[in-house]
Amino acid sequence: MARGGADSYTARMRKATHRARTALRKSGVDYFRGDGSDWIALAGLLLTVPAIAWGTILTPVWCAPAALVLPIVAGGLLLRPASLLALYAAAALALIVESLVLGPYTEGPARVTPGTVLVVAACGLFGLLIAQFRARVGVPWRRGGTMLFDLRERIRVQSALPRLPQGWHREMALRPAGGQSFSGDFVVAARTNGGRTLEVVLTDVSGKGMDAASRALLLSGAFGGLLGSLPPHGFLPAANGYLLRQDWDEGFATSVHLVLDLDSGDYELLSAGHLPALQLQAGSGRWEEKAGEGPLLGVYEGAQFDPVKGTLRPGDVLMLFTDGLVEANDRDIAEGMDRLTGEADRYVGTGFEGAAWHLIEAVAKDVNDDRALLLIRRRP
Questions:
Q1: For the chain, what is the total number of helices (H) and then of strands (E)?
Q2: Cα(112)–Cα(99) distance, rounded to whole angstroms?
Q3: How many CA atoms lie within 13 A of 99 on its CB side?
Q4: What angle do CA 163, 169, 171 make, to 5 degrees?
Q5: Cα–Cα distance, 165 to 177 (Å, whole number)
Q6: Which of 173, 200, 315, 366 lies at a CB distance of 3.0 to 4.6 Å from 189, suitable for a disulfide?
Q7: What is the DSSP secondary-structure string of 339-374?
Q8: Rounded CA gap, 51 and 69, in Å?
Q9: Where does the PPM-type phosphatase domain start and stop, copy by copy (predicted)?
Q10: What is the DSSP code (8-state) at residue 218?
């Protein structure tokens, strides 16, 4: 019985090992091919090459030899470099056939001139560069066009604010630099402590736009996992340690962590080199700065972050924002914050509904920097 049990165990282990090796081999093939083979696209494009050559010979008025750039350009966007070389060989053969059949004395658009050859060759060179770039970064040939869109949507979903109980209003607006789709500013938020506490982290990664997008995506995922998994005072030290472990050349970031009690309105702000928040006191109508103490994230180990406390009473508003909203070459931050609060006063009567986006438009519409603004209001 013992020998039979051992043999059975050995057989099961061999089967499991074989399945693991098969799965690994398949995953390796899929990775090399880019989520599937490109033979269908290659076959379709190879068929278009003789069709274009035949059309050039029969109806040169409607089909010029330079039309061969069409499958070449499409191949650069769809094929792997190895497959693209086969397409180029077919296109070169088609040009040779066209020149032999039409002859050097043919007049009109059907004539295969040195200029035609140069145009086709130049398009082939650009197509090959594009294909090599996609192969180097591992972009799938069929889904490469959607990868960046998927990354942008992931950042957008991670920046969504949770629903708040009745009596609270929140909104967030984010505008990347240069009209791009990616930003170095991001927000992660969660309701913790059984839903009675709102925790929000607004972070500004060094750099802007596409330069900071990859780091912002990585940090937003990491910060989203840390938020709510640690005590509030442990979040920024853990985030600081995470950035230090990345060892980036330009790896620092500023961040502000809001911990808001949704029952009482009491809150704490912990800052890592971030700009102060602004609170509107409904009773006096004045804006007050709320600034925690702490260094930038990713600068040195053992950093401490001292919170500042406050309370949101009915009618009060708290604004968190990044420096792109208030800082510009022609003005300092203090002037930018005064301009922001002046524009924000216009929305007191409307309860700040839809104010976040309009404030960015009014204060920093043409600023070439990432801009983010978070508004939290306790309704009267």
A1: 10, 10
A2: 6
A3: 14
A4: 80
A5: 33
A6: 200
A7: HHHHHHGGGTTTTTTTHHHHHHHHHHTT-SS-EEEE
A8: 13
A9: 164-378
A10: H
317-321: strand order across its sheet: 168-175, 371-378, 317-321, 277-281, 286-290
Pairing of strands 317-321, 371-378: antiparallel
Where are the strands (E) in 236-365, listed by range?
Answer: 253-261, 266-272, 277-281, 286-290, 308-311, 317-321
Give this prediction's pTM. 0.70
If one counts every other C-beta atom within 10 angstroms of the C-beta of residue 101, the result is 13
Amino acid sitting at position 371: R
Question: Could you give the CA distance from residue 200 to residue 161 in angstroms, rounded to a whole number?
Answer: 8
H/E element, 175: strand 168-175
Token pair, residue 13, equals 């282990």
Residues forming a β-bridge with 204: 185, 254
Q: CA dist 95 to 98, 123, 235, 291, 374, Å?
A: 5, 14, 65, 70, 60
Per-residue pLDDT of the chain (380 residues; tens, 9 = 90+): 444 455 554 555 555 555 544 444 444 434 333 445 678 888 899 999 999 988 888 887 788 888 888 998 888 888 888 888 899 999 999 888 888 887 654 555 556 777 788 888 888 888 888 887 777 766 655 555 566 666 666 666 777 889 999 999 999 988 887 666 677 888 999 999 999 999 999 999 887 666 677 788 888 888 988 998 899 999 999 999 999 888 877 778 999 999 999 999 999 999 999 999 999 998 889 999 999 899 999 888 889 999 999 999 999 999 999 988 888 777 778 888 999 999 999 998 888 998 999 999 888 877 778 889 999 999 98
Enter the DSSP assignment of 295: P
Sequence-distant (≥ 6) Cβ neighbours of residue 236 within 8 angstroms: 255, 257, 270, 272, 294, 297, 303, 305
Phi, psi values for residue 303, rounded to 5°: -65, 145
